[in-house]
Amino acid sequence: MIDKNSPLPIYYQIQEWIRKKMDDGEWEPGDMLPSERIFAEQFNISRMTVRQAITELVNEGLLRREKGKGTFVAEKKLEQPLQGLTSFTEDMKARGFQPGNKLYEFRVTPPSRDVADALNMKKTDSVYELERVRLADNKPMALEMTSIHAGVVTNLSKDIAQSSLYNYIEQTLGLTIGHASQTLESALAGEKEAELLQIEAGDPILWISRKTHLQDGTPFEYVRSAYRGDRYKFSIHLPRST
Ligand code: GLP
User: Fold this and answer.
1) Is the CB of 15 under 6 A from ligand 1?
2) How far is the centre of ligand 1, averaged over its atoms, from the C-alpha of 66 (Å)?
3) In whole numbers, what is the pLDDT of the chain averaged over residues?
4) What is the three-state SS of 58-112?
5) I need a surface site. Which of 43, 120, 145, 175 has the fewest CB within 10 A?
6) Ligand 1: distance of its center to the CA of 110 in Å?
7) Where does 150-230 show beta strands of DSSP type E?
8) Ligand 1 centre from 235 Cα, in Å?
9) Which residue, judged by its Cα, is nearest atom 4 of ligand 1?
10) Phi and psi of 130, rounded to 5°?
11) Residue 132 confidence (pLDDT) above 80
């Protein structure tokens, strides 16, 4: 399978061999790869060459290394459209995943200056502050720090925070969610994000900040979400305006 006389570098041939195993479905997400030693013996090449081939596939996101365990075929990334004001629960259900939440923080406080500015609040108003890890089939996908205007979205409870906020706002409170604005920024996971998202500190994440309004224009939520870089890719349709 490896042709040492080929003009193609050996590490590249190894990569193509691994890619083919994945394309053919012989190696599936979650499967562990043979160790570098076994690879090197099987192909009669140096471990350095094997490592180079694997490192590039890890950097591409096709494989992932787990400290002290080995190298695994990575889960496929979810494609998340950036158009459309949807909730996490809706997004996961639409893909056939079971949405879940781990609620780490739930409190009612006066707004910080940033939140007060974003949500047009007075210092004497109250916000619900939630910290949730959003799960798909029990696997962590994103960490969300949400501030909700307590005068607009009333009677929020821990139970509600552990399911869908948008469902509560629309179905229970009968409010109409209108529009939102978002910003996206790439970053590296710090210790806290790494622990909650079950990734390594220094792994790539994407911060998405959303400010959401009711249909009448009232801003009601300000959210900062850290999405796992290895589980998401984002898509958008760009019509050319004339
Ligand atoms: C997405 C958005 C958040 C929003 C959330 C609501 O994750 N990034 O800004 O708060 O959906 O989701 P749910 O209704 O499932 O609580």
Assistant:
1) no
2) 30
3) 95
4) HHHCCEEEECCCEEEECCCCEEEECCCCCCHHHHHHHCCCCEEEEEEEEEEECCC
5) 120
6) 22
7) 177-188, 204-214, 219-228
8) 18
9) 87
10) -120, 145
11) yes
Does the Cβ of 210 fall within 6 Å of ligand 1? Answer: yes
Q: Could you tell me the CATH number of the domain that includes residue 64?
A: 1.10.10.10
- Look up the domain containing 155 and give its range: 78-235
- Residue that terminates a domain, selected from 73, 88, 103: 73
Last residue of a domain, one of 55, 73, 91: 73
Helix H or strand E segment including 118: helix 113-118
- Considering the domain boundaries, does residue 240 fall inside one? no
Closest approach atom of ligand 1 to CA 87? 11
Does 40 lie in the same domain as 160? no
Query: Does residue 20 carry a pLDDT above 80?
Result: yes
Supply the ipTM of this predicted assembly.
0.99
Q: Which atom of ligand 1 is nearest to the CA of 166?
A: 14
pLDDT tens sequence across 116-129: 999 999 999 999 99
Q: Is 224 in the pocket of ligand 1 (CB under 6 A)?
A: no
| Average pLDDT rounded to a whole number, residues 30-45 | 93
